[in-house]
Amino acid sequence: MERVTVPTIELNDGNSIPQLGFGVFRVEPVETERIVSDALEVGYRHIDTAAVYGNEEGVGRAIAASGIPREELFITTKLWNADQGAESAPSAIDASLERLGLDHVDLYLIHWPRPDRDLYVETWRAMEQMKADGKTRSIGVSNFTVDHLQRVIDESDTVPAVNQVELHPAFSQSALRTFARQQGIHIESWGPLGQGKYDLFGMPAVAEAAEAHGVSPAQVVIRWHLQNGLIVFPKTNSRDRMAQNFDVFGFELSDDEVNAIDRLDEGKRVGADPEVDFF
Ligand code: NDP
Fold first, then answer.
1. Is the pTM of this model over 0.85?
2. Structural domains of the chain, with CATH
């Protein structure tokens, strides 16, 4: 079978990221090597993990066992909240690299802004140095609002390459997306399938498009992210669903279908609010 070529997006620092990847939030550490190995066999080359997921070692073992050349992979990990600050951040990336068994990652993110601690700007400056040192090829942020992004832009020399935020049809973040587009920041959608926390797949705009194209509702939602220019990495423990979520390049939603899913926005989060939920 010919391997699917996933489209890439060029980031504001000139690096490229595969637009579709595989996320490993809530993948148990003991299962991670097997599940990521399955994902790499299915064809995924972009893996999204984080120090706090506790599964970087499993991701690293799957990468090592795969024999896939390093330059064909795109690996993202994230700096956990407790490690923010100029002192702690450099050792946090070293520890992640050690667990992953890599000498660099492709993208390193500040996981949450934690505005109550007010360390994210100095953490960002430390990340600029990590990029200069070659420990990560690109740097970005996660769960940042427009205000957090604006401060980082105003108080540093680097515009984040990406902002990874909760984004799915019922919470589609249109104001943040507009701001990001103006600044050259790409948006990555976390919880792209709504984490299964509401009946997204039963909503007529999704179910009808699935019926029309002879695909699953999950495939329709992944296409909606891709056709909106978003970077997306759905998570699943099931190899069948991994294959299904990767098989999204043989059909295209019409403008009407995309617009109908756009109209499902209710401003309804399924996860934490970066302004008020601190952990
Ligand atoms: P998703 O929206 O990807 O949903 C995952 C859920 O959907 C799982 O319950 C999975 O079940 C189910 N699922 C996956 N594929 C299908 C399918 N084809 N049909 C039916 N059900 C399906 O949620 P995530 O929170 O995992 O988000 C994706 C990634 O985003 C994470 O893994 C992580 O990398 C990142 N993330 C980042 C955050 C941040 O703060 N930066 C926060 C949360 C996530 P099953 O496994 O049983 O198939």
1. yes
2. 18-197+229-234 (3.20.20.100)
